[in-house]
């Protein structure tokens, strides 16, 4: 008999017995009660057919195992992990940073547009500030993810500037610490530095494909009111500067005080803005661009991610928000959003 239920060893798992022993399967669809029950039925149906053939003297088929099925299933939907920093009777050992990055599938999360910025921000913190505190296996995994990011940027031809800065910062961290933080291995240090230089070279060789003259509408063909509405929804001031530098007509939109006021109110609180807003003036007379840039240097931008990690307060599981997880107490489950900085704090980094 397979054990179908919410096991005390981990939340909401399904256990199926195979030739090699018990296999743990994870559900694919959180809206279903047991997403992998069909795997058990498939095995049971094959067993029943084998028994009938055995009674009739026919050749018995090989008993299907869940090994390959489990591997593909785990690779697709193993997007949560139990968070534990203390060894208990039920859970021996604790979750490490490298294990969390691997089990939460950060490598494939790079291909997801919703999670791309989250992974890039985490790598920005790790490669720039915490590289010396990482184990060798964790560093190797991060460099593998970094190479995937570079390949995605080359293919999509977007986010070239931020990723170039990320590679520069990683190379600077390697150069400052030399090979002392990677087991005093000069050979390994050289290999990683060569990998970074190779990735930077690939980024520098990108040639942006110009749009062919197909007669379709472009941004400059839109009415000024529509262009302003688009710019008012841009969250990064660097995009505004790049657009304003593209041609003389767009430079006027870069000086729109309403747009800079929206950026200030989006990224900073009222108290933070008042730090540099000393006098009571009308909005059009306030130097909103200057206030924004000063707040940006002092407080940093607001971090907003389409999809981010969550920590369930009920069963202590880390999971991606869009994927969800099979909670032990779904009716009363409360989850907390985990920013990249909070993620590192979980591992005392």
UniProtKB/TrEMBL annotation:
Membrane spanning stretches: none
Subcellular location: Nucleus
Matching InterPro entries: F-box-like_dom_sf (IPR036047), FBX25/32 (IPR040394)
Biological or metabolic pathway of the protein: Protein modification; protein ubiquitination
Gene Ontology terms: cellular component: cytoplasm; nucleus; SCF ubiquitin ligase complex
Signal peptide: none
Record's protein name: F-box only protein 32-like isoform X3
Gene designation per UniProt: LOC109463076
């Amino acid at each position: 008999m397979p054990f179908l239920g919410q096991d005390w060893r981990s939340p909401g798992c399904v256990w199926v017995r195979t030739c090699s022993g018990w296999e743990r399967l994870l559900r694919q669809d959180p809206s279903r009660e047991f997403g992998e029950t069909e795997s058990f039925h498939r095995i049971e149906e094959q067993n029943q057919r084998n028994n009938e053939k055995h009674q009739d003297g026919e050749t018995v088929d090989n008993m299907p195992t869940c090994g390959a099925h489990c591997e593909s299933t785990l690779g697709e939907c193993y997007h949560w992990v139990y968070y534990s920093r203390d060894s208990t009777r039920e859970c021996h050992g604790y979750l490490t940073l490298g294990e969390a990055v691997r089990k939460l599938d950060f490598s494939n999360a790079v291909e997801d547009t919703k999670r791309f910025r989250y992974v890039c921000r985490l790598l920005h913190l790790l490669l720039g500030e915490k590289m010396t505190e990482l184990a060798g296996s964790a560093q190797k995994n991060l460099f593998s993810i970094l190479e995937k990011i570079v390949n995605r940027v080359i293919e999509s031809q977007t986010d070239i500037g931020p990723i170039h800065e990320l590679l520069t910062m990683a190379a600077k961290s390697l150069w400052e610490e030399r090979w002392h933080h990677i087991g005093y291995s000069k050979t390994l240090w050289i290999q990683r530095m060569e990998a970074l230089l190779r990735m930077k070279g690939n980024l520098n060789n990108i040639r942006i494909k110009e749009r062919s003259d197909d007669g379709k509408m472009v941004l400059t063909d839109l009415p000024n009111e529509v262009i302003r509405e688009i710019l008012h929804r841009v969250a990064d001031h660097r995009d505004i500067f790049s657009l304003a530098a593209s041609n003389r007509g767009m430079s006027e939109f870069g000086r729109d005080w309403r747009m800079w006021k929206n950026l200030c109110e989006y990224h900073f609180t009222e108290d933070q803005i008042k730090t540099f807003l000393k006098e009571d003036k009308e909005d059009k007379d306030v130097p909103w661009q200057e206030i924004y840039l000063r707040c940006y240097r002092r407080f940093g931008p607001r971090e907003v991610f389409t999809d981010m990690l969550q920590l369930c307060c009920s069963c202590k599981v880390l999971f991606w928000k869009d994927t969800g997880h099979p909670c032990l107490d779904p009716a009363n489950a409360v989850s907390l959003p985990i920013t990249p900085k909070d993620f590192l704090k979980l591992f005392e980094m």
